[in-house]
Each structure stands twice: as C-alpha cells, then as structure tokens.
UniProtKB/TrEMBL annotation:
Record flagged with keyword Repeat: no
Pfam families: MFS_1
Organism: Streptomyces himalayensis subsp. aureolus
Subcellular location: Cell membrane
Membrane protein topology class: Multi-pass membrane protein
TM spans (from-to): 42-61, 73-93, 99-121, 128-150, 156-178, 199-224, 236-254, 266-283, 289-309, 321-346, 358-377
GO cellular component: plasma membrane
The protein, known as: MFS transporter
Gene3D superfamilies referenced in this protein's UniProt entry, alphabetically: MFS general substrate transporter like domains
Matches recorded under PROSITE patterns: MFS
Chief localisation class: membrane
Domain Major facilitator superfamily (MFS) profile: 4-382
Keywords for this protein: Cell membrane, Membrane, Transmembrane, Transmembrane helix
Keyword Transmembrane: yes
Lineage: Bacteria, Bacillati, Actinomycetota, Actinomycetes, Kitasatosporales
Length: 402
C-alpha cells in the first residue's frame, strides 16, 4: 500500500469524526443551547449542505495549485471550523463553525479519490478509493464513539477541540507522506463541466443522494431513537455507534472488493438489502438486541455502496474526473441533508422517533430503481462512455462489460 494512501486515510479519519460525532451529541448540544432536537439536527443538515457547496467550489479553486498543497489547505480550513464550533457562544455560531469545517470535506475526498486512484494499477482503483474511505469508516469505530463518550462526560466542546487536534495530525501526515504531484495539466472548468452532460454521471449522483440519504434518515436521530424507543441508557449510544462504525468498515471493504469485479450487481444487492433493513428497523428499534444488529447492518449496507458509486462516477467522467468526483462527495452529503431534514419533519409531525426509518427505506428503494434504469440505458446504448467529452480514443475502443 502506498504510504500516501495512509496519509489520505488519516485526513479522512479526522473529517469522518467531525461529520458523525454530532449525532451522538445532539441531546447535549440541544440542551446546552436551549433548542429542540430537530433544531439541533440542523447541525447535521448545515454541515451536509456546506459539503455540497464546498465540494465544487474548493475543487475549482484547487485547480490552480498542486493537489498536495490543496489537501493541506483544506485540512487547515477543517481545523479552523472545528475550533469555532468548540468555542461557539451561541447555536448560530456553532452552525457557522460546522459549515466552515464542511467546506473542506467534499474537495478533500474528491481530490483524494483521484489521487488514490492514480497511485495504483487500473484494476485496483476501487480498492484504493476504499482504502482512503477506510479512514472515514474507522472514525466511526474509534473517533465517533470516543468523541461521544468524552462529550457526554466532559462536555461536547472538549470533543470538538480534540477533533481539531485530529485535523492537525492529518495535516502533518499529508505534508510528510503525500507525494508532491504536479497539478493536473489542462484542467479547465468547461472541460470538467462537460462530464455532467453524461446522463450516466447524473444517474450515479442521484443514486448517491438517495441511497446514502437512506442511511442518514435513520442514523441522524439514532440517539433519541435508541434511548426513547429501544430503552437504552444514554451511555449506550457510544457502543451502538461503534457497531454502526464496524458495519461501515466491513461494508466499505466489501464494496471496494466487489466494485472492481461486478459493480452494478454490487449496487443492486446493497441498495435492495438496505431498503429492506431500514423498513424492518421500524420494528427492530423496539428490541435492544435486534436494534443493535440492525444498526450494524445499516452501516454495512450503506457503505457497501460508497466505492462502487464513486468508481461509477470516475468511470463515466472520462478525462474530467476531478470535479465530478468532488461533486459526487457533495451528493453523499446532499443525501445526508435531505434525509436529516425529512427525518426532522416526520418527528415534528408527531410520527415518533422510528418514523425516519420509513423515510430511509423509501429513499433507498428510489436509488435501487435508478440503478436498474442506469443499467437499462447502458444496455440500450451499448456505448455508455462514448458521449463523454474528453474520452480518449483508447477509452472509446475499450470493450463494454455488463
């Protein structure tokens, strides 16, 4: 494994911790600022929307400098945002800090995905992307539960100070281990935007929004759901998040392995099973053991879609992958924002803390329908990659595998 992949995984670990730790601390933050749980959920929605905006914005700005320098600047922004959250005197200031930190997220994973894929042989690209995302998933096994435990016992502000310190470690790792790759030659905004004319790129991004949104509909409100419905003690949320994180690690690695072999069948299986499990979660949330198993399954099935969806976008956006890759990271977070908002709506409507699971099941089912549509269009044209601006003659001549 190239050491640069390890450095990317370290950065991903810090970003993953700050993205997900807020879910375990929503009750504490809501209580501290005197706001409702659905209002505190805006810290999830706001972060996610910041990723959606920051992903293309920061990536376009980053075309002027080397990828290594851009990754370092992004980690600096991440550190600043988390310190602002930690010191926030009011809810609005904390929300601003979350948004500042989130601006780094999409571009980091988007540029990082391209760098990771470039470091290895073509048949190992999805595996390399999965290796970087392992930092994000391991954050859910180690960083998020620890951050939740610290936040519940020492105060949530301490958690965000420690997350900022993680950012410093990530920045150091990138400075030391990522090779000083030259900036991508001939990257023009018009050329990068051409990838978005390909319907397959747009379909893959829509699958990302809906499929990952399904996961977040359930997980955003996991703390109140497990304490109020399943009957777990507040302290148990930490260990439930560990289970979710373990599921994510396993699902991410399986998704990376099989995406290099059979990408679309991997998506069908993961999205179909995710829809079923989320539907069942409305029932299993009432029993402690079943709830715990379901949380692990949601993490595994949700993250089994990440490497194949990211590789699908890179495959279809021939010759202009950087912006498309970053925008797809934004699409994951657009799904997060949409799901957190919809989950808050059904809770506010008085449907209970398990109602967001139905929202998730619906979103995952919609993603599965789009996956079948994408494959059907691909079979009909039998030339899925030909319409993309920037495709090379070698790419145009390559056989199509179904």
């Amino acid at each position: 494994m190239p050491l640069a992949l390890l450095a990317l995984a370290i950065g991903a670990f810090g970003i993953g911790t700050t993205e997900f730790v807020i879910m375990g601390l929503l009750p504490e933050v809501a209580s501290d600022f005197g706001v409702s749980i659905p209002t505190a959920g805006l810290l999830v929605t706001g972060y996610a929307l910041g990723v959606v905006i920051g992903a293309p914005l920061m990536t376009v700005l980053g075309t002027k400098i080397t990828r290594k320098r851009m990754l370092m600047l992004l980690m600096g922004l991440f550190i600043a945002g988390n310190l602002l959250s930690a010191l926030a005197p009011a809810f609005g200031v904390m929300l601003a800090g979350r948004i500042v930190a989130s601006l780094a997220h999409g571009a980091f994973f988007g540029i990082g995905s391209v760098v990771a894929a470039d470091l290895v042989a073509p048949e190992k690209k999805a595996g390399a992307i999965a290796m970087m995302f392992t930092g994000l998933t391991v954050a859910n096994v180690v960083g998020v539960p620890l951050g939740t435990l610290i936040g519940q016992n020492l105060g949530w502000r301490i958690t965000f100070v420690l997350v900022a310190a993680l950012g410093v470690i990530g920045l150091t790792g990138i400075a030391r281990l990522v090779p000083d790759m030259p900036k991508a030659e001939g990257v023009h905004l018009r050329h990068e935007l051409a990838a978005f004319r390909n319907v397959q790129v747009l379909l893959a991004m829509a699958m990302t929004v809906l499929g990952f949104g399904g996961v977040f509909a359930a997980i955003t409100y996991i703390a109140p759901m497990m304490t109020h419905v399943a009957g777990f003690a507040d302290g148990s949320v930490t260990w439930l998040l560990v289970l979710f994180g373990i599921g994510m690690v396993v699902g991410n690695l399986i998704g990376g392995k099989y995406a290099d072999r059979a990408l679309m069948p991997m998506l069908y299986a993961a999205l179909g099973a995710l829809a079923i499990v989320l539907g069942l979660f409305t029932v299993t949330a009432h029993a402690k053991v079943l709830a715990a198993v379901t949380i692990a399954l949601v993490g595994a099935l949700g993250f089994a879609t990440v490497p194949p969806l990211q590789k699908r976008v890179l495959d279809q956006a021939h010759g202009a992958p950087t912006l498309a890759s970053a925008v797809n990271i934004g699409a994951f977070n657009l799904g997060n924002a949409l799901a957190a908002w919809l989950g808050g709506l059904v809770i506010d409507a008085g449907l209970g803390y398990t109602a967001p699971n139905w929202v998730g099941a619906f979103l995952a089912t919609a993603a599965l329908v789009l996956a079948f549509l994408s494959a059907a269009l691909e079979r009909r044209t039998d030339q899925p990659s030909r319409v993309v601006a920037g495709a090379t003659p070698a790419e145009q001549a390559s056989p199509v595998h179904h």
